[in-house]
């Protein structure tokens, strides 16, 4: 287990305004099934880019 | 038999050399001049910098690869180019100085019929007092710099494990730096490692850069479709910094790196300081300092090179304001306009101007990123130039026929944000074109269909896969051409 960062969000400071991901969004970033699917999609996107050269 | 000389054996130089030799076979000679005995997959240096990889994992000896492929190898650095030969002989040549243990310091001349300059950058640490591993900050530009940074980071973590609070500053060490992406990767890998070692809460992490906004990356940022909106990369980048608890300072020109304080100038011209215990700041790049002489021995360096030391090619170098920049300003063939048998690829060619909008503070200090031209674009332009040159050597063409303008080329970039097979992440980006074209795509400068970005574990897997794929390719192992640039 890794230690979680401690965002310091205070009103009117720079970190107060940006959008931050929900727990679900963060969980999906390392969800193996979803990420395997994204792995395939990302490879297709990159190959498409390579073919444009 | 004609001879193609390639100066530099990095990503661009190696790509050009392998493709050229494959096409020329034994009918012509390919000769590489590079001061290094090892090839380095530079994108993985950030992992060496946090101790995830060792230098041996991102390097390999060049000599056996060149022996296997039949490429002549000079472990030497180029000193000067003589495109007209000299008074005695009109054959163009390069003066080189050997760097190998056996011949160190010896100079000799190497004649050429065609020349590709892929020398990469000079890491200009001298531009900022106190900058660099010889002074007060770390770097990940080379594998030995990265190993040095890893050691310093380990020492810092040990202190944090004893309960000490530390401040880490990562970013760019001058107002004209490029390669913000590498600093970005190192930032989030450090943050990830601190979490793994359970000392994150003892660290204040600060990003400092010359970007006008976060997410600029020297390409003016990019727009992507996400969540029903067309959104600028600034939004996603600020989100990631906030999520990981990283503070940021943008529009900063670092003026001096002291023992424990960074002095910087902002876009309003104010001087400010930020204290640090550990800093990794990238240096600005310059040309490697090659000189050029005509047949009479007169210095013609300014004919061949821009003031920055990068080589002039077929770009439009007419100075003009941002509003008048055009995609057509960017070079297509990377051929020197005066000496048609000389080409420059990768970082070695002089860009016509920046990609990000130039910003100058009231004191006249430029604070904006130089254009990045590493990684995938560097490989693509090297391949195209190698194809053009070999066609010309074989008499198939008298002019370069293939083009590789950054304004007509896309790129895929993977930026690591933490290395772990199960819970690591990386930002995966694609963009088309690299140089925004506001004539064709008036709203965002890029084609949204081919411009995307997302963060996740899949990106880390791809980055890791690319590490092995590109090392495999650079070693010219069987079917190496199957790995695209």
Describe this protein's structure:
The complex is a heterodimer of chains A (53) and B (485). Chain A has 53 residues and is mainly alpha-helical. Chain A is built from two helices and no strands. Chain A has helices at residues 23-29, 32-51. Chain A starts with 22 loop residues before the first helix and ends with a helix. Chain B has a domain at 3-123 and 285-393: 3-Layer(bba) Sandwich (FAD/NAD(P)-binding domain), CATH 3.50.50.100. In chain B, the strands form seven sheets. In chain B, strands 1, 2, 5, 6, 7, 8, 20 and 21 form an eight-stranded mixed sheet that branches. In chain B, strands 14-11-10-18 form a four-stranded parallel sheet. The longest helix of chain B has 19 residues, at 143-161. Chains A and B meet through helix 1 and helix 2 of A and helix 5, helix 6, strand 24 and helix 9 of B.
Outline the fold blueprint:
The complex is a heterodimer of chains A (53) and B (485).
Chain A: H1 23-29, H2 32-51
Chain B: E1 3-7, H1 11-24, E2 29-34, E3 38-40, H2 45-48, E4 59-61, H3 62-69, E5 72-82, E6 93-98, E7 107-111, E8 114-117, E9 122-123, H4 143-161, E10 166-172, H5 180-196, E11 203-208, E12 223-226, E13 229-232, H6 233-243, E14 246-249, E15 252-257, E16 261-266, E17 271-275, E18 278-282, E19 285-286, E20 291-292, H7 301-304, E21 342-344, H8 375-393, E22 411-416, E23 426-431, E24 452-456, H9 457-474
Parallel strand pairs in B: 1-2, 1-8, 2-5, 5-20, 8-21, 10-11, 10-18, 11-14
Antiparallel strand pairs in B: 3-4, 5-6, 6-7, 9-19, 12-13, 15-16, 16-17, 22-23, 23-24
Helix pairs in contact in B: 1-8
